[in-house]
Write a structure and sequence with these properties.
This protein is mainly alpha-helical. The chain has helices spanning 14-24, 33-39, 46-56, 82-91, 104-107, and strands spanning 31-32, 67-68. The structure holds a DNA duplex (13 and 13 nucleotides).
Length: 121
DNA sequence: GGTATGACGGACA
DNA sequence: ATGTCCGCCATAC
C-alpha cells in the first residue's frame, strides 16, 4: 500500500525493539541513537534508529524528543524540530544548552537504574 | 538488486 | 575544538 512506514515487523524485529526501547525512556531522561541501537542488538545501527524515528515517531507516538546524538546534542536542524525538541525537553526539566546540548552525565537513561534516582555529577 | 538518503558515530588531520 | 572522511544499518526507488 502507499504506506511509507517501515512496518516490516510488529515488535519482534529491530524496528519493534527500537520502538519499545524508545517508549521505555522515562520522563525527564534522554537516550542516544547508538544506545538504542546497542540495546536493540544492533551496535552501530544508530542510523537505522534515526530512520525508524523519522518514519515512525509520529505514527506510534514515540517520545522522539528524548533521543539525542551520542554527544548529547539535538540532531534536528533549526526550524525543523530543533526548537520543538528543546521545548519538549524543557517541559521535562531537562536542561538544554543554547546549542541544544544535554548533559548526558545527568540525563542519560540507564535501563539498569530505572525506578531509582540517578546519580548526578 | 544496485544506488541514494538519513534526526549517527567514531577516527583522523 | 572544528571539519572531513569512512563505516554502519534500514528503507525507498
Amino acid at each position: 500500500m502507499g504506506n511509507d512506514l517501515p512496518a516490516t515487523d510488529g515488535g519482534g524485529g529491530f524496528a519493534g525493539r527500537v520502538r519499545s526501547l524508545i517508549l521505555s525512556v522515562p520522563f525527564g531522561r534522554v537516550a542516544t541513537y547508538g544506545q538504542i541501537a546497542l540495546l536493540a542488538g544492533r551496535p552501530g545501527g544508530a542510523r537505522g534508529v534515526a530512520w525508524i524515528l523519522h518514519s515512525s515517531s509520529r505514527k506510534y507516538g514515540l517520545p522522539w524528543h528524548r533521543i539525542v546524538s551520542g554527544r548529547g546534542t539535538i540532531s534536528l536542524p533549526r526550524g525543523s524540530g530543533f526548537e520543538k525538541q528543546r521545548d519538549l525537553l524543557m517541559r521535562e526539566r531537562v536542561e538544554t544548552d543554547e546549542a541544544g546540548r544535554v548533559d548526558l552525565d545527568r540525563y542519560i537513561w540507564k535501563p539498569a537504574e530505572r525506578g531509582r534516582h540517578q546519580e548526578r555529577g
